Amino acid sequence: MKYKNKKILVTGGAGFIGSHLCEQLIKENCTEVFSLDNYSTGSYENHISGINYIEGSTGDIYELIKFSPDIVFHFAEYSRVEQSFDDYKKVFKSNIDGTRQVIEFCKDNNAKLIYAGSSTKFGDGGLGREQSPYAWSKATNTELVKNYHTWFGLPYAIVYFYNVYGGREISNGKYATVIAKFCQFKKNNKPIEVVKPGSQKRNFTYISDVIDAILLVAESAYGDDFGIGHPKAYSIYEVAKMFETDIVFLEERKGNRMSADVITDKTKALGWNPTMELEDYIKNFIKKI
Prior knowledge:
By secondary structure, the chain is an alpha/beta fold. The chain has a single domain (7-288), classed as 3-Layer(aba) Sandwich (Rossmann fold), CATH 3.40.50. The protein contains nine helices and 13 strands. It has helices at residues 16-27, 61-64, 88-109, 133-152, 178-187, 207-220, 236-242, 265-268, 278-288; strands at residues 7-11, 32-37, 52-55, 71-74, 112-118, 156-161, 164-165, 192-195, 201-203, 205-206, 223-228, 233-235, 247-250. The strands form four sheets. The chain has a seven-stranded parallel beta sheet with strand order 3-2-1-4-5-6-11, sandwiched between helices. 45% of the residues are buried.
């Protein structure tokens, strides 16, 4: 798909993944890229030159977006597992109410929806979808997207991320991500905190590899199960040891799945393969501090 003459809307365009997508779309010579973000976790520091930024929530998309986009990349959802038990009202407002509006908006404008599902629904043999308010909301939304296609002909593709890491990750506060937090601990000469039992496994995927896959899917693919994950899994304890510093254990938390199946066959069939190895990224980080 050629982006130059397309209108693209990225919800969550000031966030970690969304800002990298916006940046790559500009490099692809897309001339009309819009971001809709309420800045709950996004940052003004993530703004990319050439992007049209609109501040507001997805629940108000009809009032805020006064044009018909060709593609909507929907990344503006609440996206933390453990915190979702306390923040469940935020989860339902963003991930249920807001996303329903985005799906309806895409239907009304015949826009292709690229929805960011959650790999939590593949966790622990499929039980992961019920383990937290976050996981349930995301799994439910994938069903709604597919039903809108069946009922109304909505063009869509659903992608699934597996522990994305790289520049612009949130490194502080309760929404910080694993690799970013570990990097901060190392940089500040503090012990790395690992949630028990430490044997829970994750597949860590570099941000540029994720963006490459997203764009491949947007260009030519339709349907569900486009997983974007590195095939190699590490336990959280194994990752912590890569930072070559002291480790302390924290008490186990609710919703902390032990594993997840990596579903990447359909994405690899498009010609995608990850290029960055987590060990190399961490080694390069340590060399620079």
